[in-house]
Amino acid sequence: MDHLNYCPTCFELSLSLSSKGVIFVYINGLKLQNGHFLFNLEKQTRQELSQTILLKIEECLKWHAKLKNPRPIKDISIVSDDFICENNSSHLIGKKISVMEYFFEPDNYYRSIKLLCEKLSLPFSLEIS
């Protein structure tokens, strides 16, 4: 990908998403058992992946809506631990880093999530992360 992130190990703007890996979706800090999926940037476009992410978020929100007392949706995190540092930092294993900015413009993402929450009648006060 052409987007670089700040590396928490070498403190440089040298971190990029691997071409293959797993993306995890957390809602209010909780992950549904199947709240993750594989990605392959060699076979999928950014637009296809952003649609897959929104479908997974919708699946997780539907589960959340079925809870007896669903809490307001305050945080949805889209993260992966499949990153590569151009400076070969070796301490990235297990560090989950946001991938939201790889696939969404913040306004479009916020609007999409708000519409999903309204559709499912879920209380909504989202913080983007």
String of helices and strands: EEEEHEEEHHE
* Rounded mean pLDDT score: 85
DSSP helix fraction? 25-40%
Domains, number: 1
Q: Which shape, going by the Cα principal axes?
A: elongated
How many DSSP helices?
3
Question: How would you portray this structure in words?
Answer:
The protein has helices at 46-65, 100-103, 106-119, and strands at residues 5-6, 13-17, 20-27, 36-40, 73-80, 83-85, 97-98, 124-128. With 129 residues, the protein is α+β, with helices and mostly antiparallel strands. It has one domain. It is elongated, with a radius of gyration of 15 Å. The chain starts with a strand and ends with a strand.
Secondary-structure blueprint of this entry?
Blueprint: E1 5-6, E2 13-17, E3 20-27, E4 36-40, H1 46-65, E5 73-80, E6 83-85, E7 97-98, H2 100-103, H3 106-119, E8 124-128
Parallel strand pairs: 5-8
Antiparallel strand pairs: 1-2, 2-6, 3-4, 3-5, 5-7
Helix pairs in contact: 1-3
Task: Please provide a brief summary of the model.
The chain is of the alpha+beta class.
Structure keywords:
129 residues; alpha+beta; 3-stranded antiparallel beta sheet; 3 helices; elongated
